[in-house]
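Intended use. Records like the one below are meant for learning the mapping from a protein sequence to its folded structure. Do not use them to infer anything beyond what is encoded.
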Amino acid sequence: MGRLVVVSNRLADPRKPAAGGLAVALGDTLSRTGGLWFGWSGTVAAHGTPGEGELQTRQAGRVTLASVNLCAEDHAAYYHGYANSVLWPVFHYRLDLADFSSGYLDGYRRVNRMFAHKLLPLLREDDVIWVHDYHLIPLAAELRALGCRQRIGFFLHIPVPPPLVLAALPQHEWLMRSFFAYDLVGLQSEADVAHFTRYMTVEAGAQDLGAQRLRAFNATVRVAAFPIGIDVEEFHRLGRAPDAMQTYEEMRAEYSRRQLLLGIDRLDYSKGIPHRVRAFRQLLERYPENAHSATLVMIASPSRDDVNAYADLRQELEGLCGAINGDFGDLDWMPLRYIHRTVARKRVPGLCRASRVGLVTPLRDGMNLVAKEYVVSQNPEDPGVLVLSRFAGAAEQLRDALLVNPYDTQGMAEAIQTALRMPLAERQARHQRLMACISEHDVHWWRRNFLRALEGEEQE
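Structure written out for the chain above:
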């Protein structure tokens, strides 16, 4: 392939260990091809003109990092506005939380147009362009309007809702038509592909050509599922590092007489955290043998605390957690430990390994890689049990988890009890099958398959 050009809302130096999963996945290919990574710098300029931003470039080894600042008005409309106050709630089925303010869409289009103008002069004729996530859906259409003819792929990291939910978006026709400027659209799950295809055929009048291809607006796009994975070997190394080992030993010593349940999330309404706390309460009420035994460690890292919906969620969660500890706690036992701060990633494998049950129960999630990290962290000889929402994209792959409906708190409580009482042989068998799936479909498999499909080659 030619040079890889990655475009995302935020970019990272792929040489740095803390750069994130996307940087790990794409770093090798970017370095090998002398690639370019383009995106927002993360800086909001105090003074600036909407639709204009200063381009900055720097080298990270063989990779060129190109970034653009946003002025305050563009940041408010494009990022906080349309991307995170419209697209995020709608694509997570929460129309009730969407803010359809009129100026947001204009800002979203303006920033995508500006990105296209800044990126185009940096492109080479044989580049392969890979655009990421909901912030940049119309970017290919803007590039095509400027004469870009390179192959362009798009990957959506969040879920796709049913057609009627998508149709609630003001000017949804314009947004969804933008997908036909891409050569390939990658989604997280087969359910997402089904929703996307149904929308395009019913609402946009697209023709389903078969072989994962849709045609409309004088263009053909391939749409397929590419479930993202984790770097299994890198996470194993992280688990063997001193910080993870120390965390594991500390947790085992602190809770030597307890069975730990663990939840790690951003504090977001899509994660189903209050539902999980209510299920834990049901567990203690229905199965009193868990008193002085089961302890839930809930880590909910801060997320957009300045938005009303998130502030309300935090207040609700703190009330639920306090009520459980007040009603069930004792002098020598606090049933729930709630932590509202970010826990260092290097400690996560130790936390997961020390926990008998991993609770990953979002109301809706594109994939949820915490589920896979929990499984990889376990001791194969004595593994914990993953309780996973059927509404997480990961549920399509991780069928050997205990799959639950997060809206059914009683059913979730029963699944947690099953996990706590599961015999060793069954835990080992489930873990072995889960590990086989996660190892085969890791983040490198995801990258290879997407880029092969974009180049028109056969997938693995």
